[in-house]
Structure formats: C-alpha cells, structure tokens
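Q: I'm a student working through a structural biology exercise. My instructor gave each of us a protein and asked us to get a predicted structure, then write a short paragraph describing it. Mine is Class I SAM-dependent RNA methyltransferase. I'm not confident about reading structure output yet, so if you can add a plain explanation after the tokens, that would really help. Here is the sequence I was given:
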Amino acid sequence: MSAGPDWSGRTPQVRLGPPGHGGFCVARHEGRVLFVRHGLPGELVRARVTEDRGGSFCRAEAIDILEASPDRVPPNCPVSGPGGAGCCDFAFATPQAQRALKASVVREQLRRLAHWETDIVVEMLPVRETGLGSRAGGAGRSRGPATGSEPDAEHRLREDATVVVPGAEAPEVGWRTRVRLVVDAEGRAGVHRYRSSDVITDLRCPQPVSGAMDGIADRAWTPGAELVIAVDADGLRHIVEVAPPAAPPRRGGDRRATAARRAAAHARRAERVVSGSGRAVQYVAGRRWEVSATGFWQPHRDAAQRYSDVVAEWADLAPGATAWDLYCGAGVFAARLAEQTGPGGSVLGVESARSAVADGAAALRDLPAVDLRSDRVERWIAAQDRAPEVVVLDPPRAGAGKQVITPLTAAAPARIVHIGCDPAAFARDVGLYREAGYRVRELRAFDAFPATHHVECLALFERA
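A: Happy to help. First, here is the predicted structure for Class I SAM-dependent RNA methyltransferase. I'll explain a few features afterward.
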C-alpha cells in the first residue's frame, strides 16, 4: 500500500454515493475514496475519518447530516451510532430503504464478481401470528430439565412477546434468538465497538427477542469470557458462559507465533451452563430438534423454516433419488430432502462439527434415507462414488470456493441449491458455477438480519 496523507480525525463535507458491501456508502474527497457509515445515498454529511492507512481509501462515519434522505428515520438502536458498535448498520433507514440498499449491494457484487447483470429484490421474511412461545409445526410442546444454579434457570419468555399483526411488515426489532456477547476486564457483558476490541456494555440493541437480555447487565461474569444467549422455540432461555481463550504467545512475529495465536483463538473452550439446559429445542416443518445452545442455528426466528421451504420447493426430488446436503449442520435440509426421496432414496449429509452431526442424527433417526457424517466437505465429495440428482449447500460466510465447487460440479448433479450469507462470497461462487456450465434458474434474497447490512441469498442452478 502506497504511503499517503493521514486524514484521521478530519471531518470533510461529502456527498454520499452508492452503498458498498459492509454497511457504508461510498464518497469521494480530494481524489480519495471514503467508506462512510451511518449515511444514506444522496445525503450531504460531515464525515469524521476514523481509520486511514494511507492508501486510496479511508474509513469514516457521518457525524452531521446536512441534507437528509427522505428514507432517513430516527434510529432505533442506541448502541450502533458513530463511535458505537457494528450491530445495526442501517437502524436509521426505513425497512424498505434497507432492503433496497441490500439489493443494490448484491446486484453490484454479482455484476463485478460473477460478471452477471440481473435484478434482485430482497424479501422480508414471513412472520408468525403468534408470540415467541409458540413454535412452528404441529408436534406437542416438549421441555427438557433445566440445569445450573442460577435462580432464572427456568426463565421462560412471555407468551405474548413480539406478537405480529397478520399482513404487517416484518418487525425490525425482536427478531434475533441467538446472541453472543463478550465480557470486559471488569466482568461486564457487552459487544465490541466497531472494528475495535473495546467492549461497549450498553445492551439496549433492539435485535434480541423480548426478554433475552433480562438480568445480563446486573451480574458479574468471568473477565475475558463470552456469553451465548439462546432463546429456543419453546421460549426457554439458555445462557452459556464460554471460558476465555488460552493466552497466545505475547511476543514473536514469525509464522509459528502467528499460527499459535490463531490456534489459541479457535481452540475448543470450556462451557458452563448458567441458565436453561444448554440444549435448545427447535422446530422446522413440524420436526423437533434439540441442539447445543452454542452451536449453529439461524439467528432469525423464522429463517430456518423459510429456507427449508425454498429448498424443498427447488429440490423437487423423485422417490428413490439421491441427494447431498453439504455443510448440513443438524440436517434441517436433509430432513426435507428425505421427505421427497422416501425410504428408498439416499440423502447424504456432511458437516465438520461432530456435535451438530450427532444432534442431526438424533432428530432424523426415523428417516432411513438420511446418513449424516462428520468430515471436511471437499474430502467427503472426493470419496463419493454415486452421483446425486440434487445438491444443497449452505457454506459458512467465506463461501464454498473452488476447492468445493470444482469437484461438486464435476459430479454433474442436475440441480444445485446454494445458500450464502455474504454477497461477495456468494457472487464469487455464482461465477464459479457459471464457469462450470451451470445457469441460475432462480435467485431469491431475504432480509434475515433487519437493520444490519447482512442479507441471505439462495440460488437454484441447473446444468446449461
């Protein structure tokens, strides 16, 4: 990176341009590019430069709105403004404007990385008519025993929490059922300041479902630990304290020291269940799962059901068919695929997290077509000797990449359903499928993370 002027702390007046991937708008000043948060396209703002490494761009935040967009509204998150957390990038924009911003970003990433021009509409997720205490599906309510010594171990959210009027716009508050907090040196729970290791102990972000954060700020936690709060589909709150990571080497800049620090950050850590059982109950299409509160599950309370419905519609498998579910987690998609293939079919799933595979195997033990394994996806694909008709994959934020898409497309499935939560990684993967001879038949995007810059994209590919 070339050396240049340090604009840190400067407050230029700029006109904001289009949105960029990451929750900012692009502006230009004196020949340089500014990535400005907390503003909307077309606004005239005074922006404070917060980070400048001397290259062609620097980062800034809008501290004064001189000419406001008609899409601007009073922000509903007191934690995420200038100098705050990175939780609610667009808390100051109307829901319609938020979805339009996300659609613009997805469209630009597809144009730039997949070399594909297309229009896209970001849809709001459908909402249930009942409160959080009621779960999707028709099975009876089930409740496991609570553990832990805290007085709120049996804490259950109100049945009337977040009641939604039928036909109303999806709420921008109370949608997140899973939250991960950090604990500062004084034992106070909070969230990181944007692009910083500083901890903000203000827990008033409106994302969590009602009651999820009750009492969290009133007690001391283990300094350096993390807290996982999960509210399950039966309305039971689980709080798990994850021990601080092992101390990495303090000195040394060589590769071994860097690798040691990385390993320490990602090593398995001890967990202590503080409230609930640590086993969250979830329902999708009437089936019951019991999964680790610290494991992966879609944070939006309606996302798992909606995505599985789309997957089932697009898969359209015949009885006796073979399907793969890559990065299968606890097998939510595998269950829907197995409904279509029947007992004479074969639904093979692979996931690197052994605990998720165990949870999925328990939930799907009545489906003889399903076989879930724990392995690296690319290694598992290489070992398969039977081509699938349909493949579903929901990779992590970094996407699947060449190491997975190349052997996957070589297996020549008739249809591939790909799910991505990062527009750039998703667009790169779309480009790889197109290069391999697949075309996009369907493309949908959902606002599964209201008020943030995140968006979930689903695409159906067919061989050209």
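A: Here are two points you could use in your paragraph. The two ends are 42 Å apart (CA to CA). The chain has eight helices and 22 strands. It's a good idea to check both against the output above yourself.
Q: Great, thank you!
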